[in-house]
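FYI - complex with nicotinamide-adenine-dinucleotide, inputs then prediction.
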Amino acid sequence: MTTITTVDRLKNYIGGEWVDSNSINYETVFNPATGEAIAEVPLSSKEDVEKAVLAADKAFKTWSKTAVPRRARILFKYQQLLVENWDELAKLITIENGKSLSEAYGEVQRGIECVEFAAGAPTLMMGEQLPDIATGIESGMYRYPVGIVAGITPFNFPMMVPAWMFPLAIACGNSFILKPSERTPLLANRLVELFTEAGLPNGVLNIVHGAHDVVNGILEHEKIKAISFVGSQPVAEYVYKTGAANSKRVQALAGAKNHSIVLADANLDVATTQIISAAFGSAGERCMAAAVVAVEDSIADELVARIKKAADEIVIGNGLDEGVFLGPVIRDSHKDRTLGYIEKGIKEGALLIRDGRQDKEVDGEGYFVGPTIFDNVTVDMKIWQDEIFAPVLSIVRVKDLAEGIEVANASSFANGACLYTDSAADVRQFRETIDAGMLGINLGVPAPMAFFPFSGYKNSFYGDLHANGKDGVEFYTRKKMVTARYVK
Ligand code: NAD
């Protein structure tokens, strides 16, 4: 933490204005590919949250009563502006997060899709009626916004994850307070600028930058009715339990340790390409990353050799440079933690078949770790149990599908899982017995699109309604039932 610098000091966005935080504490934001300071983010206080709540509360009174098609029209305009500014948004993601530019383009697309889904608000907000629940009596359900909603987001998808939350919440008539990750705060400011340009009234979307003080301010504030959280497991559990204890709706999406099971009949070209992309894309910093491959013994040597060969060919570097596939991890401290896990894996007796510490970029200024692969991993090892969230892949050898599923289901997490096979019967067995919310068949990152729910179970999710899709609409609305008898 530092207080003196020549880089930009970010402001909060409250009630349609850029305002200084009243905190004196700032944290430096780094470009992880170069280690350069690119901004300073305020670690805002509970007083800043209070100001945002006042603005959001005032805006809610009008916004919640604004005709739904008018709200949708602003979202259509927003979608257009996001498309027009796609290049700039993608570049900003790469600069603050480190992922390659092509992945950043893909992330912007996923964000835009959320806005497109939310623009369907007139249909999504519809209720239901039954004209005759008893003789001469009808019943109908009406949907309303819940009030002020807050979103707390992680560093790894600076656009997509906030876009799961605020466009739909706002389309449903709520006002919103976003607390972006303090490690990737820049994109959020651009997102709110473009939404304002699209015609969003002041106070409907507010940004309060910071860390745990802001989160605690949100958790304690009586006027905030619902919280969408995405981040690591311990924080998700804390936010869910504290928010629920304070009578709020909470959906808290958490960490992961996703397994890919490769069966003997799998197309190994497809499996290799998909696993490489899912394990090492975005430097393994995806909640849908392939962290473990459980491969059938009979093809294990062949698959491992192919994955190792493909990993050797990966281009590491600054994500802004043409052809780079693997960028840095988010911070120096995260790099150190990852190197610690590599050391731990060796001590635990796993076979290190590709050592990402040896790649030349690891010695530079950026926070690079090369693709790392452990073979002969077992479920008693920490490298199998913990979410490492970095380009480190564990291979577990199994005798068949049933054992692969048993290994995957032994994890405390249950976010995503993939199966590589052409056998319909095996696909069915996998679908029916695997513990995971998002399944992929012969593809590596089965992230659902905006109109479907996104999330998992066990330690990967706390709450009831998942993000996005109809679940998102349920989460951001409350219902009134009207039962009526009309008397002549
Ligand atoms: P994080 O938990 O460190 O931070 C997430 C948010 O919580 C940030 O806004 C941060 O400021 C806040 N926060 C952090 N510590 C806090 C504390 N002690 N008290 C209150 N607030 C706190 O997560 P991260 O490192 O930014 O993101 C990576 C994690 O997010 C990984 O575990 C990943 O699996 C998870 N993730 C999950 C999903 C999903 O859909 N399940 C999606 C993306 C990321």
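The pocket of nicotinamide-adenine-dinucleotide is lined by residues 152-157, 161, 179, 181-182, 211-212, 215, 230-232, 235, 253-256, 287, 387, 389, 415, 455, 460 (CB under 6 Å). The first strand starts at residue 12 and ends at 14.
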